[in-house]
Protein: DUF1330 domain-containing protein
Amino acid sequence: MSALWIAHVKVTNAESYGRYAELATGAIEGHGGQFLVRGGKYEQLEGEDHPRNVVARFPSLQAAHDCYNSPEYQKALEFAKGAADRSVVIVEEVS
Structure:
């Protein structure tokens, strides 16, 4: 079953976060991830506002998990730490 990686982000350091995004793109795509949402217009209906929203589809929950824990993604993540307030979740899609 495919899975979605959903991130809600409030960037606090655009330069560092931009480097994260460059490196993370390769890691995500390298693990079979396909971006469905990457920024763009949004409407906050409930909860805390995070103006950057990202959704990527992976072939499976395991593929998304493997991506997050991969050396490539962990390297990218070093640039996101301290450069954004983020929440990230991976969830299986409904079949």
Summary: The longest helix spans residues 14-30. The CA atoms of residues 9 and 75 lie 18 Å apart. The two ends are 7 Å apart (CA to CA). The first strand starts at residue 3 and ends at 11.
